[in-house]
Write a structure and sequence with these properties.
Elements (H helix, E strand, L loop, with lengths): L2 H4 L15 E6 L3 H5 L1 H12 L5 E6 L4 H6 L6 E6 L4 E6 L2 E6 L4 H9 L5 E4 L19 H7 L7 H10 L7 E4 L6 H16 L4 H5 L5 E4 L7 H11 L7 E3 L4 E5 L15 E3 L3 H24 L5 H5 L2 H15 L11 H12 L8 H5 L2 H18 L5 H16 L8 H8 L5 H9 L7 H4 L2 H15 L1
Parallel strand pairs: 1-2, 1-6, 2-5, 3-9, 6-7, 10-11
Antiparallel strand pairs: 3-4, 8-10
Helix pairs in contact: 5-7, 7-8, 11-13, 11-14, 11-16, 11-17, 13-14, 16-17, 17-21, 19-21
The site of D-mannonic acid has 9 residues, from α11 and α15.
Length: 460
């Protein structure tokens, strides 16, 4: 697929991509961005006719996406799979692809460019390089290497260096990762980095860091998906992404300057994202992780298979009902029990083939956001968070059983579990990992005994 083949495609981008100028920089050009923010941006351009919001997409590690998109003039398709129907659309909003390790200076220059009004991010939990307490992890070797003066490779380093060089309008930096209060969280990291690097300037205070909640299930693309896209399009698309029909974006209405008319494409702009974000992280992402670990332990390859197991579906429902809902303040107009049911229904979509191992990865940085806040709140309310503890116990057994753990703290986790021969020893070894569990949880006897009970059952 490329611009030449466009005229023959059954689906075309809504706006002629050649007319779009870059106004957005996106850090983390994975499948999720291509099935989410890029789609909202494309639809907003179509509805408003505005041409200033093309995207410069930055891959943080490998050149794979660049190699896929460059020969296709940045075009790619989104293959939407519902339970019984599928559709495909071509997206043209990504106008440039940079690979950070190849061209770190170009990344900073794009962020600094006057024409860039908004930077969006999907760099996953570990991409923020935060310490477990929330601030910047100054012991991180990559942060240290950036601070030592190389062209920055870390996300916070790129943002701080770009901000320091800005001379034009204030910048909006919009985190789209599954983190609690992701906007203020990122703002603190960037400011701490700038302090450590001796970077100053009014651009830092003028920048806005709105919070946002993003939602769409986007599994990793497989060769079979690429073949299916080729069948539907009549040409090959190496960069196709697969997604469920559901799509949601709730954004704090706090921009430093201009922004794309994402609301025209269905994004909700609001004063307070927190209730949306808490509901999504504690219900959707928490049950997703629970099903991933329990499902993988039962040998299920996909989330859909796991949630179709009655016992596992019951465990997820129980988590939502007894532990999560009592900790939440529902956002206006959201009925929490129905939201919980709708989430499980989405997981059951058999066409997505979302791997349990994909959702299971990076548990050490996902658990705190998805489950440990709920556990803390329940303990504070003198309740026993038995269901949330089951999800954590499933992670523990999964870590102990897996030969390789896909996690930024894999070495530490594997070392901790190496000599843990009994359920109690396993719980004690992992609960002591202070980069995962905060002090109050490490010392909670209630949590410890719940974990020992569940790990014993799961190990049987
Ligand atoms: C998933 C999320 O991989 C994971 O950990 O829980 O990526 C999930 O699919 C999205 O947050 C859905 O919006």
């Amino acid at each position: 697929m490329n611009r030449l083949s466009l005229s023959n495609l059954p689906t075309k981008p809504a706006v002629d991509p050649a007319e779009l100028a870059v106004g957005i920089v996106h850090l983390g050009l994975g499948a999720f961005h291509r099935a989410h923010q890029a789609v909202f941006t494309e639809r907003a351009a179509q509805l408003t006719g505005e041409t200033r919001w093309g995207i410069s997409g930055i891959s943080q590690r490998s050149a794979t996406v660049k190699n896929q998109l460059a020969p296709q003039d940045g075009l790619y398709s989104v293959l939407t799979r519902g339970t019984d129907e599928e559709s495909i659309e071509v997206i043209g909003s990504i106008r440039e692809v940079l690979t950070a390790p190849e061209d770190p200076d170009a990344v900073v220059a794009r962020i600094a460019d006057d024409r860039t009004a908004v930077v969006t991010l999907t760099v996953t939990e570990k991409g923020y390089r935060a310490a477990s307490g929330g601030g910047l992890d100054l012991s991180d070797p990559e942060i240290q290497a950036d601070l030592a003066g190389r062209p920055p490779r870390t996300v916070v380093g790129q943002l701080a260096a770009g901000l320091a060089r800005r001379t034009g309008e204030p910048l909006t930096i919009l985190s789209c990762d599954n983190l609690v209060a992701n906007g203020p969280f990122l703002q603190r990291l960037v400011h701490e980095y700038a302090d450590a690097a001796g970077l100053h300037g009014e651009q830092f205070d003028a920048a806005a860091f709105p919070a946002s909640m993003v939602d769409r299930i986007v599994p990793a693309t497989t060769d079979a998906d690429r073949d299916e896209a080729a069948r539907l399009l009549g040409v090959r698309d190496e960069a196709v992404v697969v997604a469920e029909p559901f799509l949601q974006w709730v954004i704090e209405d706090h921009f430093a300057g201009a922004r794309p008319a994402w609301h025209t494409a269905g994004a909700v702009l609001t004063d307070d994202v927190a209730p949306w974000e808490q509901a999504k992280l504690r219900m959707l992402n928490a049950t997703h992780s629970m099903l991933a670990y329990l499902g993988a332990l039962r040998g299920y390859e996909t989330i859909a298979e796991a949630v179709r197991d009655d016992e596992l579906a019951a465990a997820a429902r129980e988590l939502i009902r007894t532990d999560v809902i009592p900790t939440l303040t529902p956002p206006d107009g959201l009925d929490l029990p129905s939201y919980g049911e709708s989430v499980l229904e989405r997981f059951a979509n058999p066409a997505l083939k979302h791997k349990t191992t994909q959702v299971a990865m990076d548990g050490s940085v996902k658990l705190p956001v998805r489950l440990l806040g709920t556990i803390q709140d329940r303990l504070d309310a003198n309740a026993e968070p038995a269901s949330a503890a089951l999800a954590v116990a499933a992670w523990m057994v999964y870590v102990a059983r897996s030969t390789t753990v896909d996690d930024p703290q894999a070495e530490r986790l594997k070392a901790a579990t190496a000599n843990a021969g009994t359920p109690t020893a396993l719980v004690d070894a992992l609960l002591a990992v202070n980069t995962v569990f905060p002090a109050d949880l490490r010392t909670s006897e209630t949590l410890r005994s719940l974990l020992v009970r569940h790990v014993t059952e799961l190990s049987g």
